[in-house]
Write a structure and sequence with these properties.
With 424 residues, the protein is an alpha/beta fold. Helix content is 35%, strand content 24%. It is globular. The protein binds cytidine-5'-triphosphate.
Amino acid sequence: MSPLNIVVGITGGIAAYKAVGVVRALVLAGHDVHVVPTEGALRFVGRPTLEAISRNPVHTDLYEGVAEVRHVAIGQAADLIVIAPATANTIAKLATGLADDLLGNTVLASEAPVVIAPAMHTEMWRHPATRANIATLRSRGVTVVGPAVGQLTGSDSGPGRMAEPEVIVAAALDRVAASASAAAHHPTGDLGGRRVVVSAGGTREPLDPVRFLGNRSSGKQGIAIAEAARSRGAEVILIAANLEVADPEGCDLRRVSTALELRDEVVAAAQGADVVVMAAAVADYRPVSVSDAKIKKDTSDAGLTLELVRNPDILAGLGSEPHPGTLLVGFAAETEPDDEHLVALGRAKREAKGADLLVVNRVGWNEGFASDENAVVVIGANGDVVTRAHGTKLSVAHDILDVVVSELTTTARAATTPKEPEPT
Ligand code: CTP
């Protein structure tokens, strides 16, 4: 990795002494490290130590060096910001965007990835306010390392201990590598000006007010595709079936539950879309009737037979109509263990549904669903395997979008055609 310009923020907790190890490891790895301690941090570790270890001057005061607008200069120049330890107070300030010291200003003035290593007493870590602040930061893309479980400053122990310096350093450098690889995938925003519709999650078909027929789709792959498309410049409509996710930044999120609701949203959104990705797991059947009251069990020991009716096949519906200017991407979740048979099932499904591309992934009791990783085979219009991809769901998403972009380019689908306005 080439040398990075790294800001290490240190905040006022006893674990501040361990932050010296983080600074040292980053300097020894060849990076240019600028330490920004809070006033509180300097009660635990001295400025001369930080200057000696980082080999750079250390400032805390927003009102020093005003002529060079220090917080903006440090923030803008940073490739990475690591805050270790991050106290509950600093986490709260970061979550609300408060900038009452040099560190807060530096973070707001920067677009670099932020990695925080929380350290606090267990009760503070578990407090709903801290939980909510951490969730906010995570949803904004902040990487949270730790805290570790173990002996705390007093006689107590539990989660709250700052992660070890080498763990923080490894996570921070990984984060930069991941951002760089995402950037390498879309150097020019190759989906700029395109409208991409993604369905994600799993539909639920109600039986009565408290029960439904559902499936184990976590929606992670679909969300990753939506986020990747967004980051490559697309306007993204994410149709989310039963996902408890925070709104992925910049996507037009439409929440649905049943297959019929999903169908209505997808069909409406597909008008004028350049790409429709059907990553959602759609129930093939729904109960013939939905009981208004909770279904009671029979007093006899007899079983229960549910009568189901077919749901429309949304992808096949879109694929059976001419769809010039819209690339249809289907998914196939198959339990077939043999690779050749898996690909054959994918080919047959692509043809049956009239999809332009079909992404096959193997699923099973322990494969596919809630995992953060995936392995897929993408089948193209003539039945060929266009690509195979495995890795994190985000990297697989980028690989799938690479195929989409190349299809859009080679078939010159509606690249310059002005879009129809969507029905309101
Ligand atoms: N799909 C759909 N509407 C349905 C069922 C599936 O649009 N009623 C879409 C899915 O979103 C996916 C593709 O069709 O893109 C394949 O879904 P999958 O569940 O693998 O296949 P099924 O058609 O349900 O076939 P089977 O369950 O028989 O394998």
